[in-house]
Amino acid sequence: MLKAAAEVRAALDKGDKEGRPPALLLLFDATAPHGRAVVSYGDPDKAHHITTYVPGLTTQVENSTEDFRRSLVVWDQANSVDPLKKTASIAWLGYDAPQVDPGLVNPAKTVAMSGAAEKGSKELLSFVDGVHSTHDPEVPTHLTMVGHSYGSLTTGKAAAQRPFGTFADDLVFVGSPGVGVEQAVDLGIDAEHVWVGANDDDLVAKAGWFTANPSKSGFGATRFRTGEGGHSDYWVKEKDSLQNIGYIVTGITEEVSSHTDYAMVLAGKQ
């Protein structure tokens, strides 16, 4: 419990510095198996741009420095793109993500099956409903969900349960093993608002373990350029991936650079 509290305290301390807004603690529960914490950089009730990051395998509050950092650099990037509008960047560590422990052989917890994502999607839906309900109706808002790795499956399952256009304005999946549906249009949103980042050296993103591989053209999403890197390298400053996430979060999607599939180019299909 003490280590989890220290991680959250360190995350909160990074707010209200270097031009950033104060960090807000939206949830902290040290009694959950791996802890629960939700931290927002910026006020989601007043923000024009809201982004929620959903992490995957091995997520636990006691070792959450990188998860909070990712949300922080997304705020930095979004603010650099659109400094005249307020951004809230949320790290949602609000479900029991799979761990590399005895849970690997438990169907309800293993990363090889969707049980943890099914349960987590319900909790994510409840959180997003709260974000919608408490947001100031006088402030236009644009909500982007960013799911990484197994967190993309959790996010996809949540999106697919909501009526069309009611969950989020844009969905971003990075390092995804699959999002639980066969096509982007099954996510309750126009396919043009479904975005996928897949580094060439990311073996998880190549798997397509949970239904269709979202990075493939047949899925119907837009694959954006990410630059070089592996499974955890989507939030590197000054790289294509983070820059493109910033454009999506702020709704400036005409600036998003698309991935070039050179095999398709040689075949005359791109």
TrEMBL record:
Residues 34-207 form the DUF1023 domain. It holds the Pfam family Abhydrolase_8. It comes from the Bacteria. This is DUF1023 domain-containing protein. InterPro entries: AB_hydrolase_fold, DUF1023. Gene3D superfamilies: alpha/beta hydrolase (3.40.50.1820). Transmembrane segments: none annotated.
